[in-house]
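Good morning,

Attaching, inline, the backbone tokens for the sequence recovery test we're adding to the shared suite. The designed sequence is right after.
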């Protein structure tokens, strides 16, 4: 992937409400949350990979239909794939033992260095002029960081990762205002409790995972608003 452009072009989605892009990434982030909590996500690694790619295709399509520009959607998906690969590679489950030989970032983006590139893209986004669509893209990167993505920093962090989190939050607030909620409508639809019959075996799994997403979102919001202003190192 090329470096992000100075400005996001071709997108009008921000008019529909802040946080729409994160909503379109919700199912992928829920899968990641399940992996990180060592919840069962699949019985077959190839079926899991195919399922994730279907979710990516749906997120891509729905985000574009909402008015987001092609590059915005692509960079959002890159961040999520980087986080998913890291979560899979850190999973203790034998199911994922073959994943290092073929990480999803390589298959989708032709990249082996997502742990580095994630931060290069984030820095480029932070150094560019920020508008509503750019703020929505930054929010996806921020969610990945708050959920635990570490990339190049691994278990060691001199404070650079924390400073990026704080700067990203401040940039988003600068666009939306300090009271702007993070992905305010990111949650389970009102009829989520009624799971429709569907030929895809992943549907009931995702319905259960949605509960994890709701709890996770609330926890992230508390971290986002309570911890960051306290001055992370």
């Amino acid at each position: 992937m090329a470096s992000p452009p100075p400005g996001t072009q071709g997108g009008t989605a921000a008019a529909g409400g802040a946080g729409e892009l994160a909503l379109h990434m919700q199912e992928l982030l829920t899968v990641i949350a399940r992996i990180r909590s060592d919840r069962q996500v699949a019985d077959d690694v190839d079926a899991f990979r195919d399922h994730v790619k279907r979710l990516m295709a749906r997120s891509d399509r729905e985000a574009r239909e909402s008015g987001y520009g092609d590059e915005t959607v692509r960079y959002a998906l890159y961040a999520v794939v980087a986080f998913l690969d890291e979560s899979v590679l850190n999973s203790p489950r034998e199911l994922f033992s073959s994943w290092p030989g073929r990480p999803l970032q390589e298959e989708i983006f032709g990249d082996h260095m997502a742990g580095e590139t994630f931060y290069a893209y984030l820095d480029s986004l932070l150094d560019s002029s920020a508008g509503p669509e750019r703020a929505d893209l930054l929010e996806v990167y921020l969610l990945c960081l708050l959920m635990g993505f570490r990339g190049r920093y691994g278990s060691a962090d001199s404070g650079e990762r924390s400073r990026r989190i704080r700067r990203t939050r401040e940039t988003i607030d600068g666009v939306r205002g300090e009271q702007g909620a993070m992905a305010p409508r990111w949650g389970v639809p009102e009829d989520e409790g009624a799971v429709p019959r569907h030929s895809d075996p992943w549907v009931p799994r995702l319905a259960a995972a949605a509960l994890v997403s709701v709890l996770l979102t609330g926890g992230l919001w508390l971290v986002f608003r309570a911890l960051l202003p306290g001055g992370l190192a």
